């Protein structure tokens, strides 16, 4: 089953995490916390304060997030949720494991600090001024930045 790295509203404790838990969307198993090996600009943009990972490697910060093992149904849901290909693209990214969740009996877990790969949703479709926005190493809708995410259902 494929692995996906989430860095924004789909992380635990964030506004859209419940979507990862809904069985009607498919299956998702939390595996680890991790950070990108390369730096990327993680920005908060639009009137809805959406976190975007701009696909500009070598700029910004190493981004912290979570790795999930997902089934094909959840991967399809996430592709639709992330508006592929009009808004986001799904590509493979290298990640450094920060902390691996407890492994199942007989299953080996990568060591802290090891490098692994997962899919990530990033965008090459953005407004030019987004490159000048502050970048973050970790997203929290309720963070000190004061830019709380607006749920899709609450948007005009």
Helicity level: under 10%
User: Order of SSEs, N→C?
Assistant: EHEEEEHEE
Rg on CA atoms, Å? 15 Å
Give the amount of beta strand, in percent.
25-35%
Write up what this structure looks like.
This protein is mostly beta strands and 156 residues long. Helix content is 9%, strand content 31%. The protein is built from two helices and seven strands. The strands form two sheets. The protein has a five-stranded mixed barrel.
List keywords for this structure.
156 residues, mainly beta, five-stranded mixed beta barrel, two-stranded antiparallel sheet, 9% helix
SSE map:
Blueprint: E1 3-6, H1 18-21, E2 28-36, E3 42-45, E4 50-53, E5 64-70, H2 72-81, E6 89-100, E7 115-122
Parallel strand pairs: 1-7
Antiparallel strand pairs: 1-5, 2-5, 2-6, 3-4, 6-7
Brief digest:
The chain is mostly beta strands and about 160 residues long.
